[in-house]
Amino acid sequence: SLQMAKHNWDLGVKRQGQSYQGKVDFDTDIKEWKSLKKHYEKNGAPWEQNAYGALDKVVDINTSPWVKYSMNAMGSGDAAARTIIGRQFMRQRAAQAAWDARKPNMNTDDLLQVARDTEDNFRDEIFRQDRDGFYIVSDKAASLAGDYAAMTRSLQENFKGFELIANIPGMKAFFPFVRTGFNYLDVTFDHTPLALFKNKYQDIKQLAKQANPNKLLLAKYNLRPEDIRYELAILEGRMAIGTAAVGLATIAALNGKITGNEPVNAEDREHWKLNGIKPKSFKIGDTYVSYERLEIFNTIFSSTADVVGHADALGEKRTDEWMKKLTYMTASVVVDQSMLSGVEDLAR
Q1: Which of 207, 228, 262, 340 could serve as 279's disulfide partner, Cβ 3.0–4.6 Å?
Q2: Is residue 281 pLDDT above 90, yes or no?
């Protein structure tokens, strides 16, 4: 993955297309643009020649290594992440093959070791070599997983219309920013229980119950029959991650194991002081351990504890609304502080 990152950085510095281009073929676009120079010199009016010359200077500036460093860095990170995902798919295929051919007494440790030893046998299923001898993810399912992580998936269903923006003259450069923003929201959405209502979850859950899985649905999600339960586990795992922090904090608050912000009421503050209760802390035994410096999650933990502590005043409806908001906040934090961090800045 580090080799792929360096290779793609070098490609960007040399003004060449990187390994994963998405919808834009940089090499072809630049070649077409430069080829227009002779046409304008031969057939263009003076004002057209001047206009092309001015724009050509802008293109040269925008494609220079010094200006493109952030794009080069993102392309390098994208290539590294996709390589990791491809390697995960190799290990998964090796584990599946080892399990299918297992001996009666094989245990989990044996399975893991066999998968490690044989994963390279599945490289050609997941990767293809490019002209420079580097391995590029080619498997459809692995490519889709890479698109999901890099937020470059085509927009789905109701959002598909936004993709038509790319067809409007002058809007092709703007579209990737629109797509990234919507994909960011979609990934966050997938880390909440609301993903239960998405067509993808319902379809894959249906496939998992079928003895002979529907081929059209398998093709829709680029899945093999043996990958269905794995994909279902991934979807349910994402939902669990987004709700776990709030769920655990809620249970802890109900049992007096976590505190929120200090009470506004002077009488309640005095009660806390007399009983040695510390704000924004976990209670372990009789000791309070502050989570105030646990950035990002400290706000979520304190807000959860406050909502639980004031549930009687807020009422059932307001409490339920705040818990849903906190779950979505947690999912956003999980997404933003992972390998997907920085996408928000790009979208802006």
Answers
A1: 262
A2: yes
The answer, yes or no, to whether residue 335 has pLDDT greater than 80, is: no
pLDDT number for residue 289: 92
Burial label for 78, CB within 10 Å (0-12, 13-18, 19+), is: buried
In angstroms, the CA 220 to CA 134 distance is 29
CB atoms within 10 A of CB 223: 20
* Cβ atoms within 10 Å of 151's Cβ, excluding its own: 22
Record the tokens describing residue 5, joined without a space.
Answer: 């990152």
Helix, strand or coil for residue 258?
Answer: strand
Q: How far apart are the first and last CA of the chain?
A: 28
Side chain identity at 77, as an amino acid letter? G
Count of CB atoms situated within 10 Å of the CB of 122: 19
- Taking the C-alpha atoms of residue 98 and residue 120, their distance in angstroms, rounded to an integer, is 13
Give the pTM: 0.52
Contact 135, 79 (CB under 8 A): no
Q: Measured on CA atoms in the order 146, 150, 153, 159, is the torsion positive or negative?
A: positive
Higher pLDDT, 199 or 338: 199
Listed residue (243, 257, 260) closest to 301, CA to CA = 260
Give the span between the Cα atoms of 163 and 289, in whole angstroms: 49
| Beta pairing, strands 127-129 & 135-137 | antiparallel
Distance (Å, whole) CA 185 – CA 194? 12
Sheet strands (E) in the chain: 127-129, 135-137, 281-284, 287-290
The per-residue b/e assignment along 79-100, b for 16 or more CB within 10 angstroms, e otherwise, is: bbbbbebbbebbbbbbbbbbee
Closest by Cα among 135, 19, 138, 132 to 78: 19
